[in-house]
């Protein structure tokens, strides 16, 4: 019942009905009051004989009698106080202020939230994303409209903040390797440093970093635009992870990390894109090698849990503070505040992991095991 009364059309109808009832009561009350005043004035204005005869008629006869009307016509026809038109005018004069007050109040109830939204929308259109519509004390559609508008502006403000941060981070990521390339190439050109294979390898590493950054930004841009290509099928997640881990064996060994792989006896199948699965696992392994190589241990596990195919990547690194876990999947977020590319990467790897997992109907989380380190858990729809 309370939810029904919260609807603006129900409350507006009740307000209108109440206004009509109050106005009708005022009309009837004013008519009764005027009738009493009219009768008193009539008796005082009549001659004593006519007043006495009128009082006798009122006591023993009906006021609709012919003699009653004759007395009124004879002694009161020139008085405007006995005119019915004047009576209606007095009733309207009494009821008009009440009707206007009720109408103004109803219009304020309806238009105040809309006016607040209109003013806020105008400022948002001018670029002020920090403005909010004033909340209303009422409940119902208008309160929901104000709340939804404010949530929309919150989203717009967050998107704009993220856009600016992304633009600043991309410019930073592009500027540094380009500056290194420019300086080293000028030095080789001016014979300041020799163009040895080692120097060319260093320059190639910068180019490859730029290429990875562009590819990562391109992937996220396609996902934001809803144009990320996915070719989902029934894949053997256990076999796919084992194959990718074998290709990373040399790189893992170079970091002095011991890798372990566990899976169910029965192969675990998932409904996913095999290329995107390789991209997800590659980013998680690279993240572990970059941040948790000091733990010298890495575990990749695949198992079935209810209707999910679950992939976990666990390390024994230094772990992550709680405040870092809350922002771990944000774009260009690094735990390394120095933003060094030797340890920090581009800051897009985990953001890509989250995007690819969500695009395939899954979920990814970061956990802090009791043994220490970090565990990433990817849950995908099982096939």
UniProtKB/TrEMBL annotation:
Residue ranges occupied by any HAMP domain in the UniProt entry: 108-161
UniProt xrefs under InterPro entries: HAMP_dom, HATPase_C_sf, HATPase_dom, His_kinase_dom, HisK_dim/P_dom, HisK_dim/P_sf, Sensor_HK_Regulatory, Sig_transdc_His_kin-like_C
Reactions the enzyme catalyzes: ATP + protein L-histidine = ADP + protein N-phospho-L-histidine
The enzyme's E.C. designation: 2.7.13.3
Main location group: membrane
Record's subcellular location: Cell inner membrane
Membrane-protein topology: Multi-pass membrane protein
Gene3D superfamilies for this protein: 1.10.287.130, 6.10.340.10, Histidine kinase-like ATPase, C-terminal domain
Enzyme class: transferase
Domain Histidine kinase, chain residue ranges per copy: 169-383
One GO cellular component term: plasma membrane
Gene Ontology MF: a single term: phosphorelay sensor kinase activity
Pfam families: HAMP, HATPase_c, HisKA
Transmembrane segments: 12-34, 86-106
Keywords on record: Kinase, Membrane, Phosphoprotein, Transferase, Transmembrane, Transmembrane helix, Two-component regulatory system
Protein name (Swiss-Prot/TrEMBL): histidine kinase
Organism: Pigmentiphaga litoralis
Organism lineage: Bacteria, Pseudomonadati, Pseudomonadota, Betaproteobacteria, Burkholderiales
């Amino acid at each position: 019942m309370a939810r029904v009364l919260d609807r603006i059309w129900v409350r507006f109808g009740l307000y209108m009905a109440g206004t009509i009832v109050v106005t009708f009561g005022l009309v009837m009350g004013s008519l009764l009051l005027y009738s009493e005043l009219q009768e008193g004035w009539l008796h005082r204005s009549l001659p004593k004989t006519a007043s006495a005869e009128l009082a006798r008629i009122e006591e023993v006869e009906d006021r609709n009698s012919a003699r009653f009307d004759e007395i009124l016509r004879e002694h009161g026809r020139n008085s405007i106080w006995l005119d019915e038109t004047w009576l209606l005018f007095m009733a309207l004069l009494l009821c008009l202020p009440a009707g206007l007050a009720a109408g103004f109040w109803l219009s304020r109830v309806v238009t105040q939230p809309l006016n607040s939204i209109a003013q806020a929308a105008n400022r948002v259109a001018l670029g002020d994303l920090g403005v909010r519509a004033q909340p209303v004390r009422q409940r119902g559609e208008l309160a929901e409209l104000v709340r939804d508008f404010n949530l929309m502006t919150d989203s717009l403000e967050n998107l704009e903040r993220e856009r600016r941060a992304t633009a600043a981070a991309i410019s930073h990521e592009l500027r540094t390797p380009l500056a290194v390339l420019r300086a080293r190439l000028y030095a080789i050109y001016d014979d300041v440093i020799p163009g040895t294979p080692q120097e060319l390898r260093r320059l190639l590493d910068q180019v490859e970093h730029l290429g990875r950054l562009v590819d990562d930004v391109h992937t996220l841009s396609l996902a934001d635009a809803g144009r990320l290509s996915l070719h989902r099928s029934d894949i053997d997640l256990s076999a796919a992870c084992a194959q990718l881990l074998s290709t990373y064996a040399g790189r893992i060994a170079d970091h002095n990390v011991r890798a372990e792989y566990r899976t169910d006896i029965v192969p675990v199948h998932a409904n996913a894109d095999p290329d995107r699965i390789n991209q997800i696992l590659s980013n998680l392994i690279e993240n572990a090698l970059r941040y948790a190589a000091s733990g010298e241990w890495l575990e990749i596990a695949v198992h079935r849990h209810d209707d999910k195919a679950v992939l976990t990547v666990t390390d024994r690194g230094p772990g992550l503070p709680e405040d870092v876990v809350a922002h771990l999947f944000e774009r260009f977020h690094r735990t390394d505040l120095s933003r060094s590319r030797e340890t920090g990467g581009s800051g897009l790897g985990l953001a890509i992991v989250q995007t690819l997992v969500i695009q395939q109907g899954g979920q990814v989380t970061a956990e802090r095991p009791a043994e220490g380190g970090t565990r990433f858990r990817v849950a995908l729809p099982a096939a």
